[in-house]
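Researcher: Good morning. I'm working through a list of sequences from a screen, and I'd like to move beyond sequence-only analysis. For each chain I'm collecting a predicted structure so we can compare shapes side by side. This is the next one on the list. No need for commentary yet; just the structure.
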Amino acid sequence: MKINKNRYLVILMVSIGIIVISSFFIPKETKPSPSTRVIIDNTYRTYIAPMCFDKADVTNWIDETSLKKAKELNYKPHSSCTENALKGEKDTLFTSILRELGILENKWRNW
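Model: Good morning. Structure tokens for this chain:
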């Protein structure tokens, strides 16, 4: 019985090791969180990434909201700057998990 228990423990440890090692090679795209902050222009019905706001030609009817809410309102990206700023980053699965947990920086964290 003790040998059988040790065998299962070894199989479990090897399986976990294989999963962890393979996560360094599996590609995954890290995307901005739905709660990422964006500015919306209600006149043009577009959203703008904060880093693109100074270059954007916007009206006075602006507001701040989440990316999820902007998409729910069917607002479109204001410019190619916004599209590029909100493009996903290609990472490994391991790096992507660390970015999503906040251990590693991602470009949308301070928005």
